[in-house]
Design goal:
- The two termini are about 30 Å apart.
- The chain is mainly α.
- The chain has 7 helices and no strands.
- Helices cover about 80% and strands about 0% of the residues.
């Protein structure tokens, strides 16, 4: 089944290159490139870890349960993400399309799924289940993380969509387990 997925992703890649170029053109503007590089770096974990440390300060000791929940969801996402990356071995779009300008170094070699998006969605869903009042902060950040993957030339749209779907499923399942 994974081999079929990898084969299908290679077929889809050809079609998706046409979608990657317009997103990536935005990175030709210095300010946009600078903003999305910053979002990408924060999306590496800095934003989420800082937020996890801040939750008990803002909401008291009960927030440590939320932090633990976010960590467990994140670890689950990491296992799935790494397994899929190495099973599908989908090349990053900039390696196959010379029109794409890679604006920042990728964390690893393969593109499917977007780990940044996967974790941002999973963390957001878990967090907002407990503290919906933080939607003003995490929802736009999560959207920017997903968009950064395309603008920086690191992912195909299907990588980002798959990351969002997997993050939703992992966090949704984790919420079912604790409620």
């Amino acid at each position: 089944m994974i081999h079929k997925l990898a084969s299908r992703l290679n077929q889809i890649s050809q079609w998706e290159h046409g979608w990657c170029v317009p997103f990536n053109r935005a990175s030709h503007y210095h300010l946009i490139r600078w903003i999305f590089r910053g979002v990408s770096r924060l999306g590496n974990g800095v934003f989420w870890y800082a937020l996890m440390l801040l939750l008990p300060v803002l909401y008291g000791p009960a927030a440590w349960f939320v932090v633990a929940h976010m960590i467990l969801a994140g670890l689950s996402c990491t296992l799935i993400y790494k397994w899929l990356k190495h099973r599908t071995e989908r090349p990053r779009p900039f390696t196959l399309n010379e029109q794409l300008y890679v604006s920042t170094a990728p964390l690893d070699q393969y593109s499917f799924p977007s780990g940044h998006t996967l974790h941002a969605v999973a963390f957001s869903i878990v967090l907002l289940n407990y503290y919906p009042q933080l939607a003003w902060l995490v929802a736009p950040f999560t959207a920017l993380v997903a968009l950064s993957r395309l603008v920086l030339g690191l992912h195909y749209p299907s990588d980002v969509l798959a990351g969002a779907l997997i993050g939703t499923l992992v966090s949704g399942f984790s919420l079912l387990l604790v409620h």
